[in-house]
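Assess this one:

_____
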Amino acid sequence: MTEMVYGTTPVRDVEPVLPKWWRTVDRWTLSCILMLFGIGILLGLAASPPLAERNGFSPFHYVERQVIFGAMALVALLLTSMMSPVVVRRLAVLGFLASFVALALLPFFGTDFGKGAVRWYSLGFASIQPSEFLKPTFIIAAAWLIAAAQDLGGPPGRLYSFMLTVAIVLMLAMQPDFGQACLVLFGWGVMWFVGGAPMVLLLALAGLVVLAGSFAYSASEHFARRIDGFLTPEVDPTTQLGYATNAIREGGFFGVGVGEGQVKWSLPDAHTDFIIAVAAEEYGLVMVLAIIVLYATIVVRSMIRLMRERDPFIRLAGTGLAAMFGVQAMINMGVAVRLLPAKGMTLPFVSYGGSSLIAGGIAVGMLLAFTRTRPQGEIGDILRGRLR
């Protein structure tokens, strides 16, 4: 009788945040992330002292900074993973707008730190690379647009997301940062495919990428030099690829021993882009395979959990984040073994880099938020219902 007079009382979820988070989060993925971070610290102890010595710092200067940045990344990961998908989407869209503006202003206020590509803002005590924060937030914004296009009377989200992608890729190519540009394009392409884009359009897009690559090869000396170096049958042993290739060869199956590797004394980017070469030389193929298994576990488990998701936005955003995370790791390791041209891309949670670590923590936190267990029917149940 009370309900008839006053209406029903909504049932509130009174379960505390932390127990609910621990019950619903993918603990396997979380464990893999923590192990990757631990491996990064271990390899940093081997790779960074030579660089610190050359720059006049204490031996573990870069390791200490990596621990600080890593702690910030883990805090960002945990906080983000506790948010609801709606909150993640709102904050990510705001973050995307800020990152987009920061990326557009790089040619005027950015610096290259002598590396020939204007990708950073110098803060004196640290630096910020806007493209690292742009990647995960762009994936969320693009997924929102593509999902909205599937609603009746929804906006032309696929067109808007395509226009944003083109703008971002052009700005990244102007730095030049072709690796990040390819990563953004790949992440958007995966979401576009999952969102139901016709194969004809995807093939046309692939053709445009080939044409753009041909133009970049003829117009950019930086791009042409990297492609030529990759296609050359013999590797110059005095280049970064030469040092990395030799280190991987010397490491063999079990490595030369902890602290016995020599590549860290020759490679200027041994603690960042070529950290996998240090792992292969000192710990051998066993360590490299362990790292590959950890990345594969994160991607595969995330994809499996997303296959059960009914919300198209969550499914698209999670797929884009997982694909981008896995492909970035694959590109970094592929460059070190000379399967891909040099890209200047970090290995997530293993390489040194403040922007990379913190942005990676935010991205994986979003992925964990999207793959948390929610009270909903399986998507397979819906499909079976439609077939009856």
